[in-house]
């Protein structure tokens, strides 16, 4: 059966967002009919123009395979249409002895799901599909996986590219054949097989992602790849000492090689204490801009539009149990003000208040990742 979840109303989430991100001027307009949350005309115009790319945003946080075999529920379609999001990089964690078979199942389900919902979703094959989706009022879906264990050898990269995969993390949190994850006791860097894997990904035009990789593996991948790579969803260790955050050295080298880093709203990656709000998330954006430049930062929420905290308690408990204690989970998983379908409107408000220009806000919301994807996929 499809998993059902109780959701906060937009009125409740809007009230919380109003505390974290007050209105900027008196000329305010409702974002859409299902919420009385109001935004300035500048916010609305930016969101209307921008390519909003969530470089780790799943369509639905659902453990039920049945969800992906059916037509998307109308409520989920409404949330997608009203969110302002242009692109979701729909990538899940994977691994283990059945990684290859599970990946085949995942990509089969996703291709069927996108076809079944073709009036709202569009599969991304090349970067131009992102622009087409924006023009057509659809949500572009990038297919990816948060591991590389389904590649039994580098020769598997091409067949999975043919199935639609356009991005792959080298590792999840632990050691695999290709490199070391962020919560391993040691980090041996990219392996010999990992070198060949990166070469093959460069060759076919698949984006290399190191979000969950250990520090040395991250630096190795940046150096080894002939194409710029991505950190699709992580934050800055200078602001939060968590193994899933990235060092200044890695961020600077990523930028020097032309890569882009996506900032996530996962609470324990944003801040190691309370309160944890959208303002603290934007601190990470500010930090990347300061040390690496405005051209190298974007967003990767690591959630669906409603976040994690509305999931059934038993699912949240299970999810937390699958990760190392160094992740530092607290009661809540989502960042206040960045935890509902209005999150990118809220983020735009804060970026305006921080003094960013319209052009720079549009770069952060998706322009930087659009540039990166065009370069890598066009290689």
Oligomer: single chain
Helix content: 40-55%
Mean pLDDT: 91
Task: Return residue spans where pLDDT drops below 50 for at least 5 consecutive residues.
Answer: 1-27
Number of helices, where a helix is a run of at least 4 consecutive DSSP H or I residues: 14
Report the radius of gyration as a whole number of Å.
19 Å
Tell me the distance between the termini: 42 Å
| Biggest β-sheet strands, sense, barrel | 6 strands, parallel
Count of individual beta strands = 11
Q: Structural class given helices, strands, pairing?
A: alpha/beta
**Shape annotation:** globular
What are the secondary-structure elements, in order, as H or E?
Answer: HEEHEHEHEHEHEHEHEHEHHEHHH
Strand content: 5-15%
Q: Could you outline the blueprint of secondary structure elements for this entry?
A:
Elements: H1 10-20, E1 28-30, E2 38-40, H2 41-49, E3 53-54, H3 74-82, E4 87-92, H4 99-116, E5 121-123, H5 128-136, E6 139-145, H6 157-162, E7 165-169, H7 192-204, E8 207-209, H8 215-224, E9 230-234, H9 248-256, E10 260-263, H10 267-270, H11 278-292, E11 297-299, H12 313-321, H13 343-353, H14 358-377
Parallel strand pairs: 3-4, 4-6, 5-6, 6-7, 7-8, 9-10, 10-11
Antiparallel strand pairs: 1-2
Walk me through what this model shows.
The protein is α/β, with parallel strands linked by helices and 379 residues long. The protein contains 14 helices and eleven strands. Strands 3, 4, 5, 6, 7 and 8 form a six-stranded parallel sheet that branches. α2 packs across α13 and α8 (215-224) runs parallel beside α9. The chain starts with 9 loop residues before the first helix and ends with a helix. Mean pLDDT is 91; it is low at 1-27.
């Amino acid at each position: 059966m499809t998993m059902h979840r109780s959701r906060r109303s937009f009125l409740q989430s809007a009230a919380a967002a109003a505390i974290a991100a007050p209105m900027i001027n008196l000329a305010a307009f409702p974002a859409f009919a299902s919420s009385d949350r109001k935004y300035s005309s500048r916010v609305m115009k930016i969101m209307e123009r921008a390519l909003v790319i969530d470089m780790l945003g799943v369509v639905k946080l659902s453990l039920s395979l049945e969800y992906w075999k059916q037509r998307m529920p109308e409520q989920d379609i409404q949330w997608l249409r009203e969110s302002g999001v242009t692109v979701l990089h729909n990538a899940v964690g994977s691994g283990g002895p059945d990684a290859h078979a599970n990946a085949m199942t995942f990509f089969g389900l996703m291709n069927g799901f996108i076809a079944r919902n073709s009036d709202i979703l569009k599969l991304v094959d090349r970067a131009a599909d992102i622009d087409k989706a924006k023009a057509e009022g659809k949500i572009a879906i990038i297919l990816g996986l948060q591991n590389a264990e389904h590649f039994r050898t580098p020769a598997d990269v091409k067949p999975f590219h043919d199935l639609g995969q356009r991005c792959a993390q080298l590792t999840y949190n632990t050691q695999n054949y290709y490199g070391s994850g962020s919560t391993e006791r040691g980090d041996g860097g990219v392996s010999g097989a990992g070198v060949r894997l990166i070469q093959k990904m460069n060759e076919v035009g698949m984006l290399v992602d190191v979000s969950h990789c250990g520090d040395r593996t991250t630096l190795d991948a940046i150096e080894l790849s002939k194409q710029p790579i991505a950190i699709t969803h992580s934050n800055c260790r200078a602001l939060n000492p968590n193994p899933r955050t990235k060092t200044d050295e890695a961020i600077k080298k990523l930028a020097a090689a032309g890569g882009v880093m996506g900032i996530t709203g996962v609470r324990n990656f944003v801040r190691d204490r309370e309160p944890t709000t959208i303002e603290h998330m934007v601190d990470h954006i500010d930090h990347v801009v300061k040390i690496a430049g405005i051209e190298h930062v974007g967003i990767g929420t690591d959630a669906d539009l409603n976040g994690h905290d509305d999931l059934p308690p038993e699912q949240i408990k299970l999810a937390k149990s699958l990760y190392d204690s160094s992740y530092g989970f607290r009661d809540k998983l989502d960042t206040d003000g960045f935890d509902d379908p209005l999150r990118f409107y809220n983020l735009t408000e804060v970026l305006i208040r921080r003094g960013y220009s319209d052009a720079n806000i549009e770069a952060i919301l998706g322009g930087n990742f659009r540039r990166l994807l065009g370069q890598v996929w066009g290689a």
